[in-house]
Fold each of these.
Amino acid sequence: MAAAEEFVKANESYAQRFDKGDLPVPPARRVAVVTCMDARLIPSRFLGLEEGDAHVIRNAGGRAAEALRSLVISQRLLGTNEVVVIHHTDCGMLTFRNEDLHAKVRDELGADASHIDFLPFSDLEQSVRDDVRLLRESPLIGDDVTVRGFVYEVETGRLRPVD
Ligand SMILES: [Zn+2]
């Protein structure tokens, strides 16, 4: 069975016990989480989030630069005033360089991706510090917005602050 068909089946039981159809659009806890798309991370579980609580913006690595568009919408239009950046141990972004992926796209697809910075990193803690700083210094993020950075450990399920 294709994943999409399995999803439809799984959703049937979710919808059966669903009782949150009247939540407002703005997140109740006024926070946006920026984190990696890694399949081992389920932010709602490890952060204790319920429907309606928070924006969770995910991309490869949980990179802030790519999340900026969504963060401006989150803050200007939907009232969030806190950002939590969460990168994680054993992230795939630690395993390649831009040149490697540019070459792979060229070899496998015959396409040119050389204009894309895939935002890989070689130092996990430093990548969190870089993204927290990027947001704190960005003119698109208000001065009243709190930005904190963490590493999530896929080995233990624990969240570790990065200062
Ligand atoms: Zn990752």
Amino acid sequence: MQTYRTNKNKVVSKVFDDVFEKYDIMNDLMSLGIHRLWKKTFINWLNPQKNSKLIDVASGTGDIAKLFLDKVDYKSSVCCVDENKDMLEISKKKLGKTTNVKWYCNNAENLPFKNNEFDYYTISFGIRNINNVNNALGEAFRVLKPGGRLLCLEFSKVKNEILNQFYKIYSKTIPKIGKLVVGKSEPYEYLIDSIEEFYSQKELLELIKKNNFTNLSYRNLSGGIVAIHSAWKI
Ligand SMILES: C[S@@+](CC[C@H](N)C(=O)[O-])C[C@H]1O[C@@H](n2cnc3c(N)ncnc32)[C@H](O)[C@@H]1O
């Protein structure tokens, strides 16, 4: 994983080029379906209002956009942003019939939107992959309206030592599942490494704070395997 550390941008692109076709099925297999519950909890905490505008960054295959639109009875709009066009294509197929979604192939660090455009900014299992997280958070703040909210779902740090030991043993099987299902173990070695190297709950909270957000809080799910961070642009 030396390449990951020295050239994160290229490695992240290659990871999603390698896995996009099997991304959804691998998510179900690796998390035993639990990622669906995490994402539902995420949208429930967002509690979006009708006639609002969401930007979902690192939108992947469109899970968050779909849950958001279901929650507001399709009476709102979503801009899905992802730098990988193959992931966006799958999202388009999944959400294609609705006119409430637009797709943008862009980097989270340089969003193609005006200041103060969105009521909500979401990022789910995306922030860990971004080269400069600080730049992406700056962009999140810029594109949100005053009164807008950022919600971030990401792998985090498990506090309980026994759960952590189980989690570490389980993590070692993930590249093997990847090899069986996708035919490659490297993208999943990247996944495990990137989770280990990513910020703790408190470190991420501090970084969000540094980018002028207020009313910050976070919730651990599944003992901290993942965490949801919430913050507002006031
Ligand atoms: C693990 S997937 C998450 C997809 C989806 N949000 C979900 O929760 O299932 C991460 C996504 O982030 C995208 N991504 C990684 N770095 C990015 C960046 N700097 N800007 C925009 N998208 C990025 C990848 O292309 C990939 O689709």
Amino acid sequence: MKTAIIGGGIAGLTTALALHQKGLGCTVYEKAGELNEIGAGVWLQPNAVKILDALGIKALVSKEGMELDRMEITNNQLRPFREIKDQVVQDDSGNKTIAIHRSKLQKVLYQEVSKHMEVKLGMGYEAHETEDNGIRIRFGEGEASAEVVLGADGIQSHLRQSLFPDSLIRSAGQICWRGISNTVLPAEDLKVGREAWGKQIRFGFSQISASEVYWFAVIRESSLPSSLPPEIRPYLQERFSDFHPLVGQIISNTPEDHIHRALLGDLKRLDQWHSGNICLIGDAAHATTPNMGQGACQAIEDAWYLSQALATHKSPDLAFKVFDTFRRKKVDYIVNNSWRFGKMAHSRLGQSVVRSMMKLTPEKVLMQQMKALYKVQPL
Ligand SMILES: Cc1cc2nc3c(=O)[nH]c(=O)nc-3n(C[C@H](O)[C@H](O)[C@H](O)COP(=O)(O)OP(=O)(O)OC[C@H]3O[C@@H](n4cnc5c(N)ncnc54)[C@H](O)[C@@H]3O)c2cc1C
């Protein structure tokens, strides 16, 4: 089965690796001329780490990043709303969250995939036609043909627009700045991932390498001035000035050109992710707001389950149906809860509801919820 993957991000490259493990080949077509992901970090939770382990790259990823022992939601002075036992941040096999620079993760994936398959850079998908003997794909530069096409071209997916022109991206009305700071956290904080909540603003951070801290700052769009200064760092320092002094230090140690802005949003639920022999995966299929830190983890789960479905079923159409049926419940749960959580984080009432829930929910229930989130099983 000649398979083309459109997009060489986390979903595309992990799927290529997972297909290879199942003895299935593919070619990855990536729009960017070189893999040079913007400077941000990502937290890979145990469900993703378990799959990276099964694909034989956990040690490589772990070496490039930082294993976290604790994840906390805190007040603006970094005091956790609730102390949670260690086990909640690891799965039954002891996989913990790995915090890593995105470019390092992508490099590990790219190098592993390139050992077995071709990754063609500078190939931006533009259109496709279904023909009698397969699918013809047109790129900005050249053409290719395939029997099966997997669309891993992210939240703004061109392929999705061709398949499902009515698909819509919903804005959450929140702006997120992400940065990489030249900071070493105090020893007791080195293995902690935090999201600190202030007056309808939040700031998250963790160490991602020996000398770098990844951080994100989220502010409601409607509370921003009509025009922002060209240098965002002083503005963020001022907005977060009543936070713990560590937050100010992290921002101030970040070069201005290491700060990137994103408008947060997700993809309105698609009724189906596939059409004929074409299937969407990762953000192209089910982009979520980042509030549960699960977007990339779900892209990695897609890779795992889709490769199993394609290896098991001769008909791609059937494989895609099995994949869709199996994945929907978890993906819907994450997209919907992440959306709600993000809304609550930026409202006074919502914040107090979350605080009360976190304080009152029995630890056993929290553990069950995390176990369900981290569960990865055979298809
Ligand atoms: C602020 C923020 C913080 C986040 N934090 C986390 C986190 O901590 N943990 C987590 O799990 N998730 C997180 N996410 C979500 C995560 O970033 C995404 O879910 C993940 O990157 C999706 O991977 P993907 O491969 O589907 O898409 P992408 O990462 O967007 O990759 C798509 C790839 O396709 C390529 N491409 C685009 N168009 C074309 C085309 N026409 N032709 C060919 N190639 C194309 C792009 O260049 C890119 O390489 C966060 C997201 C945001 C916005």
Amino acid sequence: MSQALRSVAEARRRARRVLPRVVYDYIDGGADDEVTMGENEQAFRRLAFRPRVAVDTGEPSLATRVLGTEVSMPLLLAPCGLVRLMHPDGAAGAGRAAHSRGTLWVLSSVAGVTLETVADVPGHKWFQLYASGGRPEAASIMERAAVAGYEALVVTVDTPALGNRERDARNGVTSPLRLDARTAIALGPQVLARPRWALRMMRDGVSTMGRPAGSDEAGGGGTQPGSGMGAAGAVAMLASPFTWSDIAWMRQRWPKPLLVKGVLTGEDGRRAADAGADAVIVSNHGGRQLDGAPATIRVLPEVVEAVGGRIEVLLDGGVRRGGDVVKALALGARAVLVGRPYLYALAVNGQTGVEQVLDVLRTEMSRSLRLLGCASVAELDPSYVEGSSRAGAFENRS
Ligand SMILES: Cc1cc2nc3c(=O)[nH]c(=O)nc-3n(C[C@H](O)[C@H](O)[C@H](O)COP(=O)(O)O)c2cc1C
């Protein structure tokens, strides 16, 4: 076992050394010129705290509830495709790590395993839905997710078409990403340059990676892309053009919590609430879809204000420090999700790596709260960050 991770930035550096270029770029890259991807992180950096000094906070409390589920901290694992490519521990390893740290995870529709395969991972788990086959396919996947015990449905709405991932194209990977025999041969030199990864993958059997979570055990999921491709196929992401009427339709069929992922404006936040969603995730897909979309932390206050407490608001994109989580909570997010941070960590140390990065972020969150003079995540409000139009309203409170 290699040395414990000390920061997300370190996890990223080490993942780059462990993974073949094509896999690293698949995680690390964004759409077009990667402007939105960069902005997600930069916007957090530009947002400054307004600390209260000389406050004895004691050990700050991080525990909270997300859609009724108690979590030990306001940090969840975002749904990510092809997780087995990073490490054989894959989605199950990430899920176990989340559980061991008292939080929850979201299985992607294209994680590379069927939703039943990882249903026995202990703890709370949500399922993220893509369904390029429309309502019939969505209905069947939702039914299976309910039977398998997933506690919430996360419907991703920012993928009516696939983002233009130029790094993948440069690496000779077709879109959507496929790993078949021909690609493997073409990528041979990259793979050989990372023998440890190659060995792990060979032992694990690359053959199981390509199965969409919504496909059945035999991989023959009817209209599903990726189904019937044979053992070596893999699909990273599917175009999945859901509309608001689809969301309302899902609401009728899914009695448990329903979240809409990919909202970036106040108007769409309101539409999600009107369609019956219990929460929105303010997200631009980590800058992997529409380049030029705004940084998520920048639009968070608009969405929070528009939904006016009717539904919960979560956020993802660019969270790299515990302090970023604290900023998002101050601006009204109930919790945040991370994608790349845990994928890098998984690549480096498998499940243990994910646990390490969750520990790092927890420690950073706790320290930020102490330095901010805030005793609990529940006490955060916009007055703890600069430049928010709502900060003034809180200034005289304490
Ligand atoms: C490699 C990778 C695969 C992803 N696959 C999915 C997916 O299958 N479904 C989905 O809704 N979002 C997917 N996302 C987006 C994440 O859920 C999340 O929105 C994003 O990673 C957050 O940004 P961050 O990586 O800066 O934390 C993926 C992101 C990455 C990096």
